[in-house]
Specification:
Elements: H1 4-9, E1 17-18, E2 21-22, E3 24-25, H2 36-49, H3 59-78, E4 87-90, H4 93-108, E5 114-118, H5 127-136, E6 139-143, H6 153-159, E7 164-170, H7 182-191, E8 195-199, H8 211-214, E9 218-222, E10 233-237, H9 239-242, E11 255-258, E12 263-265, H10 279-295, H11 297-319, E13 324-325, E14 337-341, H12 347-356, E15 359-360, E16 362-364, H13 369-374, E17 380-384, H14 391-409
Parallel strand pairs: 3-15, 5-6, 5-7, 7-8, 8-9
Antiparallel strand pairs: 1-2, 4-10, 9-10, 11-12, 13-14, 14-17, 16-17
This protein binds ligand 7TS.
Residues 29-30, 92-94, 122, 124-125, 170, 174, 199, 201-202, 222, 366-367 line the site of ligand 7TS.
Length: 412
């Protein structure tokens, strides 16, 4: 078992207080905290070898280029990509998804085609397809979920046909924690000739990922949800698709030959990375990958499963008080995310009271507005955990929620 207390020492922010109480940070689905190894990597770049990449013959530029490309290799092997040229740097998952919609969708989706997503998508994996479907006269279909937060796989199978061109699915739901059966879903999509996109924003930080084994055509994730900096994300695309995609952004660094009339593109992956990239943050994401790999992704997943089991057990105390907990009850099919509704207290009020106790929760629709509406509640409170969260923090969350419910019940 990994040593959580040792891990916590690497995160200076976890030692701070809020409102005079020790911080209990439970908003990891929004963004995670950063270990010193990542922070040091940023400082090291700016202090010691800050320079532009891929263009200088001088030493600093060569050092920056080496570190920048090494980070790409680290990320590629972290997700088991066949090669680092299939890893394109973006700003975040949202940008990666939009790039697929523009660079692949605009030239491969036509009138009457069908795109399938699930009822539990983050807006970033819904709106780009709504826009694409509207522009092209395509049809967007939604796989429903059952009352336990599982996808209705029969409905999915029935939806698939030769008209299906893309299936785009969230791996782990940020709003209710469901881990979807994505390998099986990819196979079913491929059986009808559709492409399969996987939104790994909430899975890459928490479990081992093998894009080849999952057989996804596109895979997206964000650095800041896996201990890396904000402003850096990844788009992975299978080579045969990437070779036939045209870049959306053009300009410096992505060309091979340019005349006044036209240009030819640079080889992969630079063809898709116009302009000066986010050098420092890419390198620091490489440091985050090193950090996570050192702990071990399987160890992280096992630990999070055990804390999820513990949380599910503790939440039964709240359920006895009328609290509704959403999502699967089985830690094999659920990430460490607890999304719940307190019928007599608005989630925002609960969030404010919990903040006074030092507990950072998220309240709202979690950018999954159609899903939260379908749950029949105005919003939920969400605790999302990471490997540095402790069992004691779960106790404090549950005890604090009980205290808050009593406070509102007494009308004080
Ligand atoms: N997909 C999923 C499943 C997500 O959870 C998020 C962000 C995104 C895509 C978009 O990621 P971004 O880095 O481009 O913003 N989820 C959340 C959340 O749950 N709270 O804040 C952001």
């Amino acid at each position: 078992m990994l040593n959580v207390e040792d891990i916590r020492k690497d995160f200076p922010i976890l030692a701070r207080e809020v409102h005079g109480k020790p911080l209990i940070y439970l908003d990891n689905a929004a963004t995670t905290q950063k270990p010193m190894q990542v922070i040091d990597s940023l400082v090291d770049y700016y202090k010691n070898y800050n320079s532009n990449v891929h263009r200088g013959v001088h030493l600093l530029s060569m050092e920056a280029t080496d570190q920048f490309e090494l980070a790409r290799e680290k990320v590629a092997s972290f997700i088991k990509s066949k090669s680092s040229e299939l890893v394109i740097w973006t700003r975040n998952s949202s940008e990666s998804l939009n790039l697929v919609a523009y660079m692949w969708g605009r030239s491969n989706i036509t009138s009457g085609d069908e795109i399938i997503v699930t009822a539990m998508e983050h807006h970033s994996n819904l709106i780009p397809w709504q826009e694409l479907a509207r522009d092209k006269g395509a049809v967007l279909k939604i796989i429903p979920i059952d009352e336990n937060g599982y996808l209705n796989m029969d409905a999915y199978s029935e939806m698939l046909s030769t008209k299906t061109k893309l299936v785009s699915v969230v791996h782990v739901s940020n709003a209710i924690g469901t881990i979807n059966p994505v390998k099986e879903m990819a196979k079913l999509a491929h059986d009808v000739g559709a492409k399969f996109l996987l939104d790994g924003a909430q899975s890459v930080p928490h479990m081992s990922i093998d894009v080849q084994d999952l057989d996804c055509d596109f895979f997206v994730f964000s650095g800041h949800k896996m201990m890396g900096p904000t402003g850096i994300g990844v788009l992975y695309v299978k080579k045969d698709l990437l070779d036939h995609m045209d870049p959306l952004y053009t300009g410096g660094e992505m060309v091979s030959e340019v005349t006044y009339e036209k240009a030819t593109w640079a080889p992969l992956p630079m063809k898709f990375e116009a302009g000066t990239p986010n050098i420092a943050d890419a390198i620091a994401l490489g440091a985050a990958v090193d950090y996570l790999s050192e702990i071990g992704m399987d160890e992280i997943h096992e630990y999070e499963k055990s804390i999820t089991d513990y949380g599910l057990e503790k939440f039964s105390l709240l359920e006895e008080m009328g609290v509704i907990l959403f999502g699967p009850r089985n830690s094999d099919q659920r990430g460490a995310i607890f999304s719940f509704h307190t019928p007599n207290v608005h989630p925002h009020d609960l969030g404010t009271i919990m903040d006074q106790m030092g507990i950072a929760l998220r309240t709202g629709h979690h950018c999954a507005m159609p899903l939260v509406k379908s749950l029949g509640v105005p919003a939920t409170a969400r605790a999302s955990l990471y490997v540095y969260n402790t069992f004691v923090e779960i106790d404090t969350l549950v005890d604090g929620t009980i205290e808050a419910l009593k406070y509102f019940e007494n009308g004080s």
